[in-house]
Amino acid sequence: MTFNNRVTRILGIEHPVLLAPMDLVSDGRLAAAVSQAGGLGLIGGGYGDCDWIDRTWREAGNARVGCGFITWSLAKQPAALDRALAHRPAAVMLSFGDPAPFAPAIKAAGARLICQVQTLAQARQAADAGADFVVAQGTEAGGHGQARALFTLLPEIVDALPHVPVIAAGGIADGRGLAAALALGAEGVLLGTRFYASDEAAGHPEAKRRILAAKGDDTARSIVFDLSRRNRWPDPYTGRVLRNRHAERWLGREAELEREQDSVAAAYGEARSKADFDIAAVIAGEACGLIHDLPPAGDIVRRLVAEAARLTVPELRVRP
Hints:
The protein folds into two domains: 220 residues, Aldolase class I (TIM Barrel, Alpha-Beta Barrel), CATH 3.20.20; 69 residues, no CATH class. Strands 1-9-8-6-5-4-3-2 form an eight-stranded parallel β-sheet. Helix 9 crosses helix 16. It has 16 helices and eleven strands. Helix content is 40%, strand content 15%.
């Protein structure tokens, strides 16, 4: 399948497939692999660790990559954006907060501005801030998000913002997801969980094994893992992770967990250091039920495109 739309033209890529900038998991090696396969890799800048940004950008070598940040955290770590822009990223993605304070610097550096949103109001806010692309993120996604499912959120944003290319995120792991997103008006897709389960991803092998073993029903969206690591996000954001023993213990008991946060956080931190995923969270979305292998990231990109090419979505007809 040959793509020629606003996403591929503006970003200068062959395939409209983007790597979600997963904090610590989307490192330079993974981002480079996605870009070299014809997509666009986005390094996970997360909460703004400048040393990690420099180190992982070196891992990307000469690959053309971008970077993503948690928007509200940049107010606390403003140097992180400057550090990323010094590496001349192809694009900067901002998620979870008003992009307006940071948009001018991103534009001035020659990078494209990608804004991930979870509501129509946020999409309009991003467009007003000068976003080159809007990512419509459905609640199926792993990690943080809100309450709208992708199937209705995506076309609503596409209809409201005809002048801004829209990229779909949440629950997409194969060519069927790419084809469906295009049919709903998206011009690209952004994948997290599918690339987490790849050879190059910087996730722990046990975390990847659990993603392969899980079904979509094995995930839950809550604030349990944020409270457990003493990093409560602003309302109304919650995070989707794989269910484990720790999650099952505290789901529905968040107020009690908050009261016992000190002791829980100490145990949770120790579990993270030991890769004990019965306690520590594996951040993954409902797409885990569609993932059955750990291939190189480049193979994922090529497979996604080939599968979408075999589908004849535009030719579907309503049966009598």
